[in-house]
Protein: protein-glutamine gamma-glutamyltransferase
Amino acid sequence: MSDQGATATPSSPPPAPTGPPPKVTSRGRAAAPTASSNVDAADIPEFEHFGTVGPRGLPPLTEYLDIWDVDMIKKPDEINKIDHHTALYHSDFLIVRRGQEFQVNITFDRTYKPAEDKFAVEFVIGSNPQYSKGTYIPVLPTKERQSSWEGRIINKSDNVITMGITPAANCIVGKYHMYVAVMTPFGIRRTRKDNSRDVYILFNPWAADDAVFLDDEEERKECVMNEMGIIYHGAFDDIAERDWNYGQFNYGVLDACLSVMDRSDMPINNRGDPIKVARQASAMLDSLDDNGVLVGNWTGEYTYGVAPTSWTGSTDILLSYASSKMPVCYAQCWVYAAVFNTFLRCLGIPSRVVTNYYSAHDNDGNLKTDIILDENGRVDRNRTKDSIWNYHCWNECYMTRPDLPPGFGGWQVVDATPQETSDGMYRCGPASVYAIKHGQLCFPFDAAFVFAEVNSDVVFYSRKKDGTMQPVKVNRSHVGRLVLTKTPGDVTRRDITSQYKFVEGQCSAEEQTVLEKAEEFGCKRDKSDLPVADIDLVLPKLEIRVGDDFELSLEFVNRSNQERTVNTYISGSVVYYTGVNKHEFLLRDPSVKISPNSSAKEVVMVQSKSYMKHLVEQANLHFIVTGKVKETGHVVSAMKVVTLHNPKLTVEVSGEGRVSEEMVATVRFTNPFSFNLENVYIRMEGPGLMPPQFKYYSLITAGSSLTWAEFFTPHRAGSTRVIATLDCPVLRQVYGQASITIKP
Structure:
């Protein structure tokens, strides 16, 4: 009988696993997991025996020093919070700043004897505290024995001593658990874990050794302590202002800011470096690649969230994120910047919101924004893809830059609006403002991108029928026209353009040096040497209300001794504030004759019915006028953004204006339009006055009015404001405010 070969029987693959994937840990890779949560805490034993416990257990310890009580001196009117500028934080815990001494009172069971008794105040942070990592710090009362934090006995009275503790100026920022430990011959015994003794330690711009030290008291008051901000928007020649309650001292905001770093899995031992903290937070404020705080939305459709124009402050956003662990809907650039500002100020990093008018976007460092014209000089919208934001908001924070050469510290740009990835994540900065101004674009982080935002050229190209393109005009001063921030201690605006760039268009030695330096690092400009047209084109400044008809008057100025004829194209479009075109509602092509050394005007009537049904939330109309001079072939051009003005809310406050005495804030609004407003939300809040409130109205008919009165009780003296916004799908960016001074 012959052998037969065995036949392999095919089998089904094993079933796919079901359920959640297993949690990946550091086991086998590291001796202990990386501490990356300020919420997790180590279990510190109440007694650590020096040797093996005997058969009779622990020996009696009654004759050795024992701790009866620890007073954290944490009330707002007590020395710690006053000296550390933290009295405004609405918190039951002790909040202090690093690099500066704070005090605690310790009550023992008997009089403390320095020669015999040994004790330490211990601070731990994170789940795996280690002395070498700066996450376990014992503070000793004698000069002979000191750790990285200094300690001293300030006062002794009977059984009570006052201990002075100075955290290192570069220590980790976050929430520490505090213990008092007494040494005995048999081991160390310490106080039980008590959350009421937790200590929050923040950055300290008042301490010279801290990396965020800012030696300007007015700037510190504004960029650390001020809760009420002004954010600039609108157009370069028609600047609008929006009030914002940063609310960095509100209840729960500090914990929410720490939770942002926890959600990013940022190692605890990196949280003392403001460079790393600011860069990590820049990534975490947007949700694109890490489930961060805010979801960006520029579409105009906000059904499943709050419209960016509706927010009045940061508190609701941060508390919602901390409690839900889900990104908050929705944001645009000023919301990102405002919430980021709250985060930075809350942790003690001096910061401010900055607005750049005509901000180049997504240029990849090539310093060019291209506008394509056809052979006749008309804008080819199908081929013109680049856009310039009417304005863009980012943040500046103040810190040293030991990673850069001397002189590049100070104000640093950080931007949470997701535009481009940096090292694989949507984030930007910190980039030295000094480096940007001087073209030193090799320095981290993202200096080239910010440089392009304020220095790009607008290049007009003429496209021939064969597809070739030739530059016909270059505008080197349109982008980065104006950079604004709030003036410290005032409600006026401050022009800081000169901190970002030298005066443009004067071919100064400084400007030329900057451009040459930038080109060394890859930022190429258009160097076309184009003839200058002898015709100037001027567009007027316009202040128009939503729903108005208006005249657009173009002035052509002939600087030559000969008559000129300009074949002109006038284009008007509804655009998002990012410069992205939504709908072209106007197109005219007049031919204009100008006598020698004189001017001529061309007036175009713009009717509201042509633009109203296409308006988006910030009601921007963008006019581009291009023309070709018949006699010379030169191209002239001008661009104008017209921001239509919305109606205002009227906000009034009545009452005595005293702490703990009830007052009333009243919001009034009249619908001035011939159409109804539906699904209307009104929001109101005020720092030191009232938490965020909102009211919903399903319908406000044409011509009708509403009144909303809200009672509140001030809990803090000083000057402040009540701010309110109105928002609905067909009307955004409506707001009002009332200033008030609360007496003690």
In short: The domain at 650-742 is CATH 2.60.40.10 (Immunoglobulin-like). The chain has four domains: 47-51+62-202, 227-520, 535-643, 650-742.
